[in-house]
Amino acid sequence: MATFTVAVLGGAGGIGQPLSLLLKLNPRIKDLRLYDVVKHTPGVAKDLDHICTSGPATGFWDAPNSKNKPNLIKALIGVDLVLIPAGVPRKPGMSRDDLFGVNAGIIVGLCQGIAKACPEAMVSIICNPVNSTVPIAAEVFKAAGCYNPRKLCGVTQLDLTRSCTFWGATTSQKPGTVSVPVVGGHSGVTILPLLSQAVPQHQQSAADVEALTRRIQGAGSEVVKLKAGAGSATLSMAYSAAVFADLCLQGLGGSPREAYAYIQSDVMPGLSFFASKIMVGPKGIAKIYGVGDMNAYEQKLMEEVKPALKSAIDKGIKYARSKL
After folding, report:
1. CATH number, residue 86
2. Is residue 199 domain-shared with residue 107, that is, in the same domain?
3. Containing structural domain, residue 214
4. pTM, whole model, 2 decimals?
5. pLDDT at residue 95, rounded to an integer
6. One of 40, 50, 186, 202 is an active-site residue; which one?
7. Burial 162-186 (b: 16+ CB within 10 A, else e)
8. Most buried of the four, 52, 151, 174, 206, by CB within 10 Å?
9. Residue 202 annotated as catalytic
10. Quick one: which H or E segment has residue 61?
11. 166 falls within a domain
């Protein structure tokens, strides 16, 4: 079994810590690196390092105002897969897009470090708004001369996790035995669950289909509201990111795996980035699948997806080009 070096940027945060714990349990990871801009990051890594699984865990940190971020570079040298949960979390009343002002700058800085230290690594972005941060990352890598669209993706696995949980409850099936494709983007109306393609199928009224679709689209707000200012989805996001990371590592190790991710794509005309099913292989994204047959309701929802997603993509690209 092939093993890899993995870095979690934002490893001491609300998503980063549980994600790093799950990654420490993954036998495909021989070396786990945690990086953050808080002083206790090495302590978090040492805590993980005491767990009796193979491979060390090491923590790195730079002060938030550090210009060159030398420890970011140290953390990234030799890394095969980078996961980026860094960024500020949502608070009640906020959308993922409201996070743009702070998180966009964070992504620029971290991706510049990746370009210097591990330009051939596969990069998986969790930092919201994913609809904009992935295009930002692409522009950073283009400016550095190391952009490989097969190695950059936004993690939308949480949308599938929630969809399977909700669909399992609807169909009285265990969530692990059902599947629901989710395409489009990773924010509000851009999240498009294709319930007509769900397995197993289940007869529902049009009202029930719409209610479940809207619940999937707004599921993150359920968590934000109930956490009452204490953060957004962290544990379900960490679980989903760990699932996605494992699929990537299996693919990179020579056993191609299917997953869903937000990537540069021509699946949907007029949108340069789009979430759909992909296959990950030894060189990254080996295949991009179309959305399949959509029913009339889903086709109608796609018309909501397109302008919202295009706006987010354009916003990210414009921001990145203004900073590079």
Report:
1. 3.40.50.720
2. no
3. 157-234+255-312
4. 0.96
5. 74
6. 186
7. bbbbbbbebbeeebeebebbbbbbb
8. 151
9. no
10. strand 57-61
11. yes
